[in-house]
Amino acid sequence: MTNRKPSRAPARSRAARIAAGIVLVAMLIPVGAPSFARGEPAPEYAVKAAFLFNFAKFVEWPAGAFSGPTSPIVIWVLGEDPFGDALGSLKGKTANGRPIVVRYAANLGELERCHLLFVSASEKANLPKILQATKDWNVLTVGDVDGFARDGGTINLVNEEQRVVIEVNMEAAQRSRLKISSKLLALAKIVKPGRR
Q: Which of the 8 DSSP states describes residue 84?
């Protein structure tokens, strides 16, 4: 008879493994570009909405990025909204004990401080101005256009072989004082700024 202590993984660790599994499954879902009615997201953007939610769970912001311990994680979509109703699925959800709030800005002038900024393809030409305007923010910038992370964004969601691949610019994350979970980084391709 052996006297073994039962292994008890902390609940947070188990939750992190489950969330990492969700991200992995989302990466394996094929993406397509069929035509959809207004308001309905293409399956690709339903997957990318799930990625944004998981990024909110797997990124740690400095304490000063929030006004209080239960302040929301604010996500902004800048430019044309490719998500349709997909981000509506985040309503009422929380990440790390914080509610998630989604807002939309048609242009840089409407944008306010946030924690996660999705830069739409319609704003690709404005990326240098956007990154300059947000350089002092603790913001996770996410895009899905070629070269987004290499051009200074933090995370790029790239379609490769009918799946979504995560590219991460660690220098951009460090400039924003963000800590990206090793579980998320294990699923990502690390890119260097300016290298093509």
A: T
- Asked if residue 118 lies in contact with residue 76, where contact means CB atoms within 8 angstroms, the answer is yes
pLDDT in tens, 126-166: 999 999 999 999 999 999 999 999 999 999 999 888 889 99
Alpha-carbon Rg for the chain in angstroms = 17
| Percentage of the chain modeled with pLDDT above 70 | 78
Please list, in sequence order, all residues whose beta carbon lies within 8 angstroms of the beta carbon of residue 172, skipping any fewer than 6 positions away.
Answer: 141, 149, 152, 153, 154, 193
CA 102, 103, 105, 106 torsion-angle sign: positive
The closest alpha carbon to 23, from 170, 164, 180, 161, belongs to 164
Distance separating alpha carbons of residues 104 and 117, to the nearest angstrom = 10
Enter the DSSP assignment of 150: T
Residue with tokens 């070629």: 146
Task: Read off the pTM.
Answer: 0.79
Backbone angles phi, psi at 167, to 5 degrees: -110, 135
Q: Is beta strand 94-95 parallel, antiparallel or unpaired with respect to 98-105?
A: antiparallel
